[in-house]
User: Fold this.
Amino acid sequence: MTINVKAIIGSTSSTSHNLKVVEFMRKRYSEQLQITPVFINDLETFSIDIENEAPPAVQGFKEDVKDSDAVLIAVPEYNYSIPGALKNAIDWCSRGDLVLQGKPTFLIGASIGALGTVRAQLHLKEILTNPMLAPVILPGNDVFIGTVQNKLDAEGDITDQATIDFLDKVVQNFVEFYKKNRAGA
Assistant:
């Protein structure tokens, strides 16, 4: 069984380290996870003035997330928190069709800083506790890839064996978590 995972890329950068990590995961774990990146670059800023008639880019984004078995959120850290564009995407998910509710989800984050995305993920987890969002997050498998620039080769593949081994374990744990979550549904 391959799990259909939509990976929300929390950065709008064309050189995103988080996108590179997701692409690495897409290739490495293709037998377990069918990972499709979902981009937030073109989402209009959330406003209650347009929430009932969401723009086409927002509708497409939410359909992508809805049309998945699970969600992976790749979150960079900007100024000790999540990027504004990612918060905007999450705000859209909390309105209308609640596409994250009950969705098995796991988080990863890569940063050039030594701590990876520890603070951003703490903020993200707090945001995701909103009952209008409420994905089912894989517990105890925090992926904080620090000094990522030293762990990727020119093609964007992870070269650090400890990071690869840890990702292998997290993906294995997520597959088991997903199966248990779906069995109980």
